[in-house]
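Structure request: Tagatose-6-phosphate kinase, Anaerobium acetethylicum.
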Amino acid sequence: MIVTVTLNAAVDKAYVIEELKKGEVMRVIRCTNTPGGKGLNVARVIKSCGEEVLATGFLGGHTGAYVKDMLDEQQVPNDFFYTSGETRACINILESDGTSTELLEPGEPVSQEAVDGFIRKYEQIIASSNVVTMSGSVSAGVDTDIYARLIEMAKAKGKKVIMDTSGVLLKNGVQAGPTMIKPNRDEIEALLGIKVQNRLEVIEGAKKLQSMGIDFVVVSLGAEGALVVTKDAVYHGQPPKIKTVNTVGSGDSMVAAFAVGLERGYEVEEMLRYAVAVSAANTLTMATGSFRTEDMERIYKDVVVTRL
Ligand SMILES: Nc1ncnc2c1ncn2[C@@H]1O[C@H](COP(=O)(O)OP(=O)(O)OP(=O)(O)O)[C@@H](O)[C@H]1O
Ligand SMILES: O=P(O)(O)OC[C@@]1(O)O[C@H](CO)[C@@H](O)[C@@H]1O
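Returned structure:
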């Protein structure tokens, strides 16, 4: 089983409009609500890949209850720690020319008692899992070393851990040696305090991170696919050219597919091909963190994996 951790869950609202005009009253053509916060996208995609998943983290208030209802409706197994603070909303404004603008609420503060309560729950939940993913931001009140703590607990029980976050959470989490991280170019720059100008420098940066005790450093490159750096080799996975509909959540879809790859014991090249296919297929649907199996299977055949 794969456990996904979402410490700052959300109701994701996708607003479809013609064109965003600053300072004007705008009517939304269509609005869809989905359970969000990166980890919930990961959970949904793992389920679509056909693997057993359990979503955990914090939920609170009416919005938290709504997110739980949506997860139950989508048959995504979940076991959250409930807090008094209201779960946030994240808005993705999609214009007819394909532009996407995201507005992410910070999330209400979480108390120390709630953090302690969650950690007790987490310890029990991960006992029956093989792989744990932890994704996204945290709200105020949650220490910036939380992922480092959760990674240490999972590793002590022999679990594989994927961490996908940014800023100081990523910096602190890396110290605990997760099995895999998935920074993008900006996150590598922030983490190492360097500027990366080209693919070679991205690889050099990823190698530095790998040598800090991380088995797989995955760097996602949008339409250019992804790199995987291991102790022994560097791989690149290139998706075919596709006409995207909504790219939000493709990083989460990639994390989900890698978690599935780890769970199934795939070799690194197979894992990369699968992750590129699933994440590229996610860009072909309007819904965040979802893909059609037929898209994924078609793309899978055309992904080019190269050992560099
Ligand atoms: N335009 C695209 N065409 C094909 N595949 C894409 C495209 N955009 C994203 N992907 C796939 O999704 C993966 C993740 O995308 P990206 O690199 O944008 O991640 P990210 O920065 O973490 O994104 P986000 O935070 O929006 O989820 C890519 O490695 C690629 O496989
Ligand atoms: O604040 P976080 O958790 O870092 O990011 C939240 C978020 O933007 O990430 C997802 C896309 O990756 C969206 O579904 C979601 O709302």
